[in-house]
Amino acid sequence: MPEIRHLLGIIDPSGQKVFEALTANQDLVAWLTPTVQGQPFLNQMFKLEFGQETVDLKVTKHDNSSWVQWSCTGGEFEWLNTKVNFILEVNPQVTIVEFIHSDWQDSSRKFSEWSFNWALYLRSLKKYCESGTGSAYPNQMT
């Protein structure tokens, strides 16, 4: 099955800021989308809204500040049953984020669109963790 993959380094020697940005509602709204319903806690459901598109997610992994996984349970059809993984590798100067959005049914137009969007949102995550200011939807191009 096709998967979207990205790798980036974020200046965060402990990895704590990156982990919090993935697991706290007030952080998600700063770098991803301003409309987050629910709390992204382990085994909890939450919803992301990107304009008219919504995605229902469940946090299915939340391991020791090193791995966060969201499983899509509803909303945007192409996302259904996909998994969004953020695997963190903490190094002395930088935290490496391995991003994998897996289990897509095919490499459709929506797959290509989201590959591009995820690159923009991950850049926003980096900006947010390093400077305190992200570029959440609909400003991800800035």
Comma- or semicolon-separated keywords:
142 residues; alpha+beta; Alpha-D-Glucose-1,6-Bisphosphate, Chain A, domain 4; seven-stranded antiparallel sheet; 7 strands; 27% helix; globular
Task: Explain the overall architecture.
With 142 residues, the chain is an alpha+beta fold. It has one domain (4-131): START domain (Alpha-D-Glucose-1,6-Bisphosphate, Chain A, domain 4). The chain has helices at residues 16-23, 25-31, 109-131; strands at residues 4-10, 35-38, 45-50, 53-63, 67-75, 83-90, 95-102. Strands 1-7-6-5-4-3-2 form a seven-stranded antiparallel β-sheet, with helices on one face. A hairpin with a 4-residue loop joins strand 6 (83-90) and strand 7. Helix 1 crosses helix 2. The longest helix is centred in the C-terminal third of the chain and has 23 residues, at 109-131. The protein is globular. The mean pLDDT is 96.
Question: What's the gist of this structure?
Answer:
The protein is α+β, with helices and mostly antiparallel strands and 142 residues long.
